[in-house]
Every structure is written in structure tokens, then in C-alpha cells.
Design goal:
By secondary structure, the protein is α+β, with helices and mostly antiparallel strands. The chain has one domain: Bacterial Protein-export protein SecB. The protein has three helices and four strands, in the order H-E-E-E-E-H-H. Strands 1-4-3-2 form a four-stranded antiparallel beta sheet. Helix 2 packs across helix 3. 17% of the residues are buried. The N terminus is likely disordered. One of its GO terms (cellular component) is cytoplasm. Belongs to the SecB family. One of its GO terms (biological process) is protein transport.
């Protein structure tokens, strides 16, 4: 009976330790905001007087930085440049930096890097997408609905490139 009580106490203690770890693990969106926004239509109004035949060029980057205790800023920068497909003149250029403040604790190392590089951008992208669409529409152009982005795949490609670069540098230093 004493052994049974001891085992139950150990199990309860182990359960309390697990509960404390769960309590220490924290992820919360503190704020989502536009950090920078720009729209240019350098060839207007002439661009509106011809048939709209767009050729879209899209650039997407993410970055993150620690701004306080357990507080991180993640930024998605979207640049959409649309040119007339036949003439090559720029119809418009839209840039947005969609940012978010995230409180993250209990996550460290590679898991934190993954959270900042893939999970947080997934949270922010719908806001960036809506902002670009709205900006382009306010510029007098048809909506530009950006396709969903797989930030998990982008993050995996980035890690693969970094590993390949590290391997190449390692090979160069041994030669």
C-alpha cells in the first residue's frame, strides 16, 4: 500500500511537471499591423486608356527579430510589379510590409526558428494578401488576388540552402 501511494505521488508529481511545461509554453498574437506600404502607377492615366494585359512579377520575403522578453516581430514583405505584357511598361508597383508582434515562450532553438519562419508568416499572410488587393483596387486596377503561399515549403527550402552552403564552405576550408 505504501509503495502504491509512492507511485501515485510520483505519477502526480510527473503530471504536475508536465502541466508546468504546458503552462510555460506560450504563443499569442499581440498585434498585427502594416509596417510600410507603397503604391505607384507611373504610367497613369495612359495605362487606363489601353487594354489591360498584365504580366505579374511577385517577390515575397520574411524576416523576424526579437524586440523584447519573449516578444518577436515577424514581417512579410510583398512586392507586386505588374507590367503591360506587350509594351513592357509598368502598370503599377505595390509593396507592403505586413508585420505582427508575437509573444512566444517555452519554445527554443530550431523549434522557435521554425515558428518564426513558417507558422507566424502563415498567420500574417491573409492580412498582407487583403491589403495588396485593396491597395491595387484603390489604384484603379482590377483586384490582384495572391495565391496562397506554403511557408512550410519555403522554410524547408531555406534550411536546405543554408545546409548546402555550410557544406560547401566546409569543403572549401578543408581544401
Amino acid at each position: 500500500m505504501a509503495e502504491e501511494n509512492s507511485q501515485n505521488a510520483n505519477a502526480a508529481g510527473g503530471s504536475q511537471a508536465a502541466d508546468q511545461n504546458k503552462q510555460q509554453l506560450q504563443f499569442a498574437v499581440q498585434r498585427i499591423y502594416v509596417k510600410d506600404i507603397s503604391f505607384e502607377a507611373p504610367n497613369s492615366p495612359a495605362v487606363f486608356q489601353q487594354p489591360f494585359k498584365p504580366k505579374v512579377s511577385l517577390d515575397l520575403n520574411t524576416s523576424s527579430r526579437k524586440v523584447g522578453d519573449d516578444l518577436f516581430e515577424v514581417v512579410i514583405k510583398v512586392t507586386a510589379q505588374v507590367k503591360h505584357s506587350e509594351e513592357g511598361t509598368t502598370s503599377f508597383l505595390a509593396e507592403i510590409e505586413q508585420a505582427g508582434l508575437f509573444r512566444i515562450s517555452g519554445i527554443e532553438g530550431a523549434q522557435l526558428e521554425h515558428t518564426l519562419g513558417a507558422f507566424c508568416p502563415n498567420v500574417l499572410f491573409p492580412y498582407a494578401r487583403e491589403c495588396v488587393d485593396n491597395l491595387v483596387n484603390r489604384g484603379g486596377f482590377p483586384p490582384l488576388m495572391l495565391a496562397p503561399v506554403n511557408f512550410e515549403a519555403i522554410y524547408a527550402q531555406k534550411k536546405k540552402r543554408e545546409a548546402e552552403q555550410a557544406q560547401q564552405q566546409g569543403e572549401q576550408t578543408t581544401q
